[in-house]
Write a structure and sequence with these properties.
With about 675 residues, the chain is mostly beta strands. The chain has one helix and 51 strands. It is flat and about 90 Å long. Keywords: Carbohydrate metabolism, Glycosidase, Hydrolase, Polysaccharide degradation.
Length: about 675
C-alpha cells in the first residue's frame, strides 16, 4: 500500500512537471533580473525587480526560516514535496525553474544546487564565492560577479563551466538573459548594453544611459533596458535600439521596480517615489500611466502582469494590489500573509504565485483573477507535543521550523536532504499535526465510602499488598554514526575549479548530508555543506596552481562519519613542452644569436613589455599550465600568434609565446587561464 502511494505521488508530480511551458524563471528576493529583486541593485539607486516562474500548474516556492523549497500545485493548493537544504536556514534562496531543470542558489554561501525533479532530491552542487549572482534564461545560465565585472556561463545539467570567464569591465547594472541565451549587461560608464555569450563580448548597444542606474528585463524574449535615472525604457535588438520611450512623470532618479521577465509584450513598472504604475506595450509602442495611491511609505515589490491585470505586492501590509487594464480601474486587493514581510512574485502563462518567504502562506491567482490560498506546509501548533512520525511519506509541516543546531528528530533540520512528500490531488491523506491515538477510557470508580444518609462508617482494615510493577518502556537504541563516504575523487576542471565526487556509505538514510572541507595547508581553506554527492568548488574559492586536500564527512542523526580524502591541484598538473627559440633571430626584444645558449624569457603578463620572471633554456622541458591571449608575436617564418602559455621552469613561473613551445597551435594542449 505504501509503495503504491509513493508511486502515485511520483506520477502526479511528474505529470505536473510535464505540463510546464518553456522558459526559465528565477524567484528570490536577492535575484537580479533574474536579479533585480527586493533591494536596489549593485550599480546604485533606482531599480529592483523580482523573479518569475514560467511553468503551468506547479511552482517551487522557498521558505527562508526553514531553508527549504516546496513544490506546490496550483489546482489543489497543496504541497507535493518539500526539500530542506543543509546550511540554508535563514537565507533567502533564489530558485530558477525551467521544465525539469530546477536550480536553487544561496547567495549568502555561494552554493548552487540542482534539484533532481524525478527523484525529488538534491542533485549536483557547485560552490562559488558568496555574492555572485545566478542569471538564467530559457537557453542559458550565467554566474555573474557584478563587483568583479565577470560572467561565467554554466552547463544547466552538470553546473560545470561552459567556455572561459568573460570580463565585462565597468560599473554594471542588473543583467538578463534573452530568448537566444545571450546575457545583456547594462554599463553606466558609457551608457551601453553589452551582449555576452560563452564566446566573449559582442558589439555594445548605445542606450544613452551614461551615468544612469539601469537594469535589463526580458519581455517576450527580447531585452529591454530600464533606465531608472532618466525614466526611460529601450527595446534592444542585436544591432541597436528598436524602440525607446520616456516614462512621463517618472522624473529624474525615479525608484523604478521592474520584473525580471514577462512572457508577453507588456512590461509593468512601478515608480515608488512618484506613486505611479506604468504599463509599457513593447509591441504597440505605447505607455500607460496610472496613479498608485497606497498612502505613502509602503514597501512595494516588483509588479507582475497576467492577462489584463497587473499585480503589485505590498510588503508593508502583506497583500497584493490589483489593477485591471481592460477596465482601467483598481480592483480589491487580497492578502497573502496579512502582515509585513517579503513577498516573491512568480507569474506564468495562466497563473501568478505570491509567496510569503517567511511563513507557510502563498496565494495563486489564475486567469480569472480569483486568488486561491496555497499552503507550503502546516506550521507546528504552539505547545503541541511531538509524536513519532508515522511510517511512509513524511508530510510537509509535520516537523517544526529548521533549528539552528542539528536536530535529534530524523529529517527535521539541516542535517540532511529532507524530502517530504504528500499525495497528489484527489489522493486521500492522513491528517497531520494532530494525535490520532484513541483516548484512554475512564476506569469505573468504586462505591463511595460515605453513605448517602450522612452517617460515618469506619473504614475496614485492609491487608497490605505489593503494588503492581510497571514494566519499563522499551529502550530505543540511539542511532549510530554513518560510515565514511567511499570512492572520493577530486578532479581539476578548466578555469581552476575542482570537481569532487563520492559514493554514499553503505545503508545511507535519505536524510544524509555531507560536509566538504578543503585546504592547501596554508592560508586558503573553506567548507561547504551539501546533500549532493557531486560538488564543484569554484576557482574563485581556490588559489590557482595550489594543491588542495578535500575531506568529505557524512552526517546523519547518529552523528558524523570519519573523513574520506582526496587531493587535486587547481589548474591541474599541466603538460610538458620543449622550448624551441631557434626561429627568434629577428625578434626585436629577445633575439637568438647563439642557439645553444639561447633562452626563452618568461614574463609576468602575456606581453614583452611586462617584467621578466625567469628564463627557460633552449631545448629544455618545461611544464605548461594554461594559455592566455596577449601581445601578437612573430617568428622568422612570418608566423604570428597572440597566445601565450604560463610555464614553470627552474622553480619560477611566467608566460612565453606559444611559438617558442612548438608552434602556433601548441597552446591548445592546455586549458585557458582563469
Amino acid at each position: 500500500m505504501l509503495g503504491s502511494l509513493q508511486n502515485l505521488v511520483r506520477r502526479t508530480i511528474r505529470a505536473a512537471l510535464a505540463r510546464r511551458t518553456p522558459g526559465r524563471t528565477i524567484a528570490g528576493g536577492l535575484a537580479a533580473t533574474l536579479l533585480l529583486a527586493g533591494v536596489a541593485f549593485v550599480a546604485g539607486k533606482g531599480i529592483a525587480s523580482a523573479g518569475f516562474s514560467t511553468h503551468a500548474g506547479t511552482a517551487w516556492l522557498g521558505t527562508t526560516p526553514r531553508g527549504s523549497v516546496t513544490l506546490v500545485d496550483a489546482t489543489s493548493g497543496r504541497p507535493s514535496a518539500e526539500i530542506v537544504l543543509p546550511g540554508t536556514a535563514g537565507h533567502r534562496l533564489q530558485i530558477s525553474q525551467d521544465g525539469d531543470t530546477i536550480l536553487v542558489y544561496d547567495p549568502s554561501t555561494g552554493v548552487l544546487t540542482k534539484i533532481d525533479s524525478g527523484r525529488l532530491t538534491a542533485g549536483p552542487a557547485r560552490a562559488t564565492v558568496p555574492g555572485v549572482r545566478l542569471v538564467a534564461g530559457a537557453k542559458a545560465a550565467y554566474l555573474v560577479d557584478y563587483g568583479a565585472g565577470t560572467a561565467q556561463r554554466i552547463d544547466l545539467a552538470t553546473l560545470e563551466n561552459v567556455g572561459p570567464v568573460i570580463r565585462v569591465p565597468g560599473h554594471l547594472g542588473t543583467a538578463g538573459v534573452d530568448g537566444q541565451g545571450t546575457l545583456w549587461v547594462p554599463r553606466s560608464d558609457d551608457g551601453m548594453a553589452v551582449p555576452v555569450t560563452s564566446n566573449g563580448l559582442g558589439t555594445p548597444v548605445d542606450v544613452q544611459g551614461r551615468g544612469s542606474s539601469m537594469a535589463v528585463s526580458i519581455v517576450g524574449g527580447r531585452p529591454v533596458v530600464v533606465d531608472g535615472t532618466k525614466g526611460r525604457v529601450s527595446v534592444l535588438t542585436a544591432t541597436g535600439v528598436a524602440w525607446s520611450a520616456a516614462l512621463a512623470g517618472a522624473g529624474s532618479g525615479a525608484a523604478l521596480l521592474a520584473p525580471s521577465t514577462q512572457d508577453k509584450g507588456r512590461l509593468p513598472l512601478v515608480d515608488k517615489a512618484g506613486g505611479r504604475l506604468f504599463v509599457v506595450d513593447t509591441d504597440a509602442h505605447k505607455v500607460r500611466a496610472v496613479r498608485l495611491d497606497t498612502g505613502g511609505g509602503h514597501d512595494l515589490g516588483a509588479p507582475a502582469m497576467n492577462g489584463d491585470r497587473v499585480y503589485v505586492p505590498d510588503q508593508t501590509t502583506g497583500s497584493v494590489l490589483v489593477y485591471s487594464t481592460s477596465r482601467n480601474t483598481w480592483e480589491p486587493s487580497f492578502p497573502v500573509s496579512g502582515k509585513a514581510g517579503p513577498i516573491d512574485t512568480l507569474p506564468e502563462n495562466d497563473a501568478v504565485y505570491f509567496n510569503d518567504t517567511e511563513s507557510s502562506h502563498a496565494v495563486v491567482v489564475g486567469a480569472d483573477g480569483t486568488p486561491r490560498p496555497v499552503r507550503k506546509f502546516t506550521p507546528a501548533r504552539p505547545g503541541a507535543k511531538k509524536s513519532p512520525s508515522p511510517a511512509g511519506p513524511v508530510l510537509p509541516g509535520s516537523t517544526p521550523s529548521v533549528p539552528a543546531t542539528r536536530p535529534s528528530v530524523p529529517g527535521s533540520g539541516p542535517s540532511g536532504p529532507v524530502t517530504r512528500r504528500t499525495p497528489g490531488p484527489g489522493v486521500p491523506s492522513r491528517p497531520y499535526g494532530k494525535s490520532t491515538s484513541p483516548g484512554i477510557p475512564t476506569t469505573p470508580g468504586t462505591p463511595s465510602d460515605t453513605p448517602t444518609d450522612g452517617t460515618s462508617t469506619p473504614t475496614p482494615p485492609t491487608t497490605p499488598t505489593t503494588p503492581p510493577t510497571t514494566p519499563a518502556p522499551p529502550t530505543t537504541p540511539a542511532p549510530e554514526p554513518p560510515g565514511a563516504p567511499t570512492g572520493v575523487d577530486a578532479a581539476p576542471q578548466p578555469g581552476g575549479s575542482i570537481r569532487v565526487s563520492w559514493t554514499p556509505p553503505s545503508g545511507a538514510p535519505k536524510n544524509i548530508s555531507y560536509a566538504v572541507s578543503y585546504t592547501d595547508g596554508g592560508d586558503s581553506s573553506g567548507s561547504v555543506q551539501t546533500t549532493s554527492t557531486v560538488l564543484t568548488v569554484d576557482a574563485t574559492r581556490l588559489v590557482f596552481l595550489r594543491t588542495y586536500t578535500f575531506s568529505v564527512t557524512a552526517h546523519t542523526d547518529g552523528g558524523d562519519s570519519s573523513a574520506a580524502t582526496a587531493k587535486a591541484r587547481s589548474g591541474g598538473d599541466g603538460k610538458s613542452f620543449t622550448v624551441d627559440v631557434s626561429k627568434t633571430t629577428t625578434d626585436p626584444v629577445n633575439p637568438c644569436t647563439d642557439l645553444p645558449n639561447c633562452r626563452a624569457t618568461m614574463r609576468q603578463d602575456p606581453t614583452h613589455d611586462s617584467a621578466a620572471t625567469g628564463e627557460a633554456p633552449q631545448g629544455s622541458t618545461v611544464v605548461g599550465y594554461c594559455h592566455k591571449d596577449g601581445q601578437s608575436i612573430g617568428d622568422d617564418d612570418g608566423v604570428r600568434s597572440t597566445q601565450w602559455v604560463l610555464i614553470e621552469s627552474g622553480g619560477k613561473r611566467g608566460y612565453v609565446s606559444t611559438l617558442w613551445l612548438g608552434g602556433a597551435n601548441a597552446y591548445q594542449s592546455v586549458w585557458p587561464c582563469p
